[in-house]
Amino acid sequence: MLDQSTLLLNETLDIFGQNPRLSRLYTQLCFAFPLPNYDIQLQARITAHLSHGLEILAAALPWVAGEVIRDDTGLYRIRACGSTPTLAIKDLSNQLPSFEEYRKARFPFKILDEMVIAPRRTLPDAVNENAPVFLLQVNFVVGGLLLVFNGQHNCMDFRGQAEIIRLFSKACREEVLTDGELEAARLPRFDWIQTIGETENLPRSKTKSILSAAASGEQAPRLSSRNLWTYFLFSSDALSTLKSTAVETMESEYVSTDDVLSAFIWQAVLRARKSRLESMQVDSVFERQVDARKRLGIPEGYTGNVVFKSKSVLHLQYIIEAPLGVVASRLRQALNPTPSIEHQVREAATTLHKEIRESGTISGSIHTGLPLTGIRLSSWAKENCYGLDFGGLLGKAEAIRRPSFKTWEGLVYFLPKALNGEIAVALCLRDDDLERLRSDDLFRQYGQYVG
């Protein structure tokens, strides 16, 4: 067992958590739970249950109750800030729909506003805002509750946040965290990714996409009143049919469901956009955020920021006209690049370490905007969030969604896969593109509009 002093308090964040663009940014996830009835006593019991879980979690991992600061050297680190993460409680039974109304509407964006249900906005309100590591907000509605988790983006990517939520669910059930879980969550962060010696270094041109990956989770969007967030649901049967279709024409030895759904979304969005584009003779970029833990030999339960950005660039007309399996294969091939993901991530870490040694900080000046034809995907589908049991009166969530936040055209999320195999896809598109997508017969055959 690790010494209890290894608790990541006043610990420097990992190298990809040093990017200033991540500062005070949050990733949010909303868990929706039905309740048997609605009264003050029930609210008090649930609040006490969750508070007790946070006490147990923070006793094992005190850093989750800390906050991210930028110290005098210019580095980001976690410092102590209270005994437990903040748990905000709101009774919104007179302001929000009932849980049954949420259920009938299938939990759309329009009634999941971060300004109402989240403890902190995705994008920072002010430069001088503090940045707690982990925040929760319970929103009681008639017949249920919405539990929103906010994870600070310097500290954790989504894999890391999902792990903290999983450990919290265990704490709520008063289950002891294993030595392996504690060790992974307490790993010293800053030097965990091995840097590259001069003899094995690669050209700097290979590094750019990795450097921007550390800042690509929640960047300031291209704001437009014409952009809308929308959910579409893909059932297990729809996903199986899509994959069977793709396998018939795939050019690689294997394609995953994520590859196929990504290709399907890419093709459909470009079909919706093409009528307003000046030319079809342009390239389209598809960016995927990829967890690099396995390739780097980092434990799956490591809670830091280890994201690799896989980029696929294809001719727009080719994407639209190619069979689904061909496009899915191209996306799969991008996950096995030359040089390897491991080497590219290590090279990026080496570059950032060098920048810190020479200037004391990372500039954070890398451009991460999307071109007009681009799409950026973060897939959380493999995270077993629906399988988490929070004990007490809560149990497992009925629905999991990302709350709505400022629009950013071309941003896509695959939400955690439900126990029945369904995946909710969050899309941000222009309103005219969205209307064309909803009228696309092929897309409608598989994706159910939620809004």
UniProtKB/TrEMBL annotation:
Pfam families: TRI-like_N (PF22664). It comes from Polychaeton citri CBS 116435. It comes from the Eukaryota. Residues 25-172 form the Trichothecene 3-O-acetyltransferase-like N-terminal domain. InterPro entries: CAT-like_dom_sf, Sec_Metabolite_Acyltrans, Tri101-like_N. This is Trichothecene 3-O-acetyltransferase-like N-terminal domain-containing protein. Keywords: Transferase. The keyword Kinase does not apply. GO terms for molecular function: transferase activity.
